[in-house]
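User: Please run a holo structure prediction.
Assistant: Happy to. Please share the sequence and the ligand.
User: Here you go; the ligand is adenine.
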Amino acid sequence: MKIDILTLFPTMFEGVLNESILKRAQEQSLVQFNLVNFRDFSLNKHQKVDDYPYGGGAGMVLTPQPIFDAVGSLLKQSDENARVLLMTPQGERFTQKKAEELAEEKHLIFLCGHYEGFDERIREHVVTDELSIGDYVLTGGELASMVIIDSVVRLIPGILGNKQSYEQDSFSTGLLEHPQYTRPYDFRGHQVPDVLLSGNHKKIEEWRRKESLRRTFERRPDLLTDVHLTENERQFLNQLIQKKR
Ligand code: ADE
C-alpha cells in the first residue's frame, strides 16, 4: 500500500511512522509512506497556502491551488485509483468497518488541514472521502490521519503475525473484546477465572463470548443493536437486563 500524506507539518509524523508496527511494515515493504508539504506546490511568491474567507469572518481558509496541484502530481505518478481522504470534524465518523474497507486499497492520499477550513472546491473536486475521528475539534488533521493510518495499516495482510489477533479485536466482531489474563494464576490474592485453565476449548469460547456480551452491555449497549445473537446469547442478555432492573 502506498500512503501519501499532505501536510504543512511533516515532522509531526516522524515518531509515529518510524516505531513499532508501522516501522516494521515499511521495512517489510508492505507499506510505503510519502510525506508531502503542500506548501512546496504553492505558486504564490511567498508560498502562501491560505487566504481570507469570501464574505468575511474569522480565520483563514486553505486555497485550492496548492492542494489541487499536489494531489494531481501524486495521481499522475500512480496508475491505481487513489482514495483521497480529507480529515475534518465534519466528515463521516471513522470506524473499524471503514478501516477494513481502506485496508483493501492500494493507494491512499491523506489531506491534513490547519486553520479554519478548506476551500469548498477541494471537497467537491479532489476529495473522495471526508473522515472524522470523533466529535471533538483538533488543531489540525495530522493527529486524525495518524490514528486512521495506524488502524488501517495493522489490517494489511502480513503485518500482524496472527490473523486471529485482529479478528477477535473489539468492534471486529461487533462486540467489545473479552477480558484477558496471563500469569501468574494468583496475583496478590486475585485469581484467574478457572474456566481459562480448564483446557476445555468449547467452554472457554462460551465464557469469552459471554464476557464479551457482558462487557458490551455494560459499556457500549449501543453496539448491541447490530449484532447477530444466538437464542442462548439472547437469554443471557435478558438476564443481564433483568439484573440491572
Ligand atoms: N480535524 C480537526 N478535528 C478533527 C477530527 N475530529 N477528526 C478529523 N479531522 C479533524
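The longest strand covers residues 83-93.
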